[in-house]
């Protein structure tokens, strides 16, 4: 999952090379949705065994509401999404952020 540092939207996608994919999104070389919401930050990464498994996981995550995605990222304590970087807080079912950690 990527979070837009512009409007705090969350993008879910699959790729065999997440570093390159993030670089391309931030260079505005993706689809219209990601081009118009740069910059992006990786907040959640889950390896999948094969393309079929990755597609099923992507489909499941895309069905989450924004608040559910935020809860998933926050509950995992994912190293890519640390308190030293940027926090996204839930506020009445909607996410707000980014805010600098204290």
Give a brief outline of the structure.
The protein contains four helices and five strands, in the order ββααβααββ. With 102 residues, it is of the alpha+beta class.
Keyword list:
globular, two-stranded antiparallel sheet, 102 residues
Could you walk me through the main structural features you see in this protein, from its secondary elements to its overall organization?
It is a single chain. The protein is α+β, with helices and mostly antiparallel strands and 102 residues long. The protein has one domain. It is built from 4 helices and 5 strands. It has helices at residues 18-26, 32-35, 51-62, 66-76, and strands at residues 2-4, 10-11, 40-42, 86-91, 94-100. The strands form 2 sheets. A 3-stranded antiparallel beta sheet has the order 2-1-3, covered by helices on one side. The longest helix is centred in the middle third of the chain and has 12 residues, at 51-62. It is globular, with a radius of gyration of 13 Å. The two termini are 24 Å apart. The model is unreliable at 79-102 (pLDDT under 50).
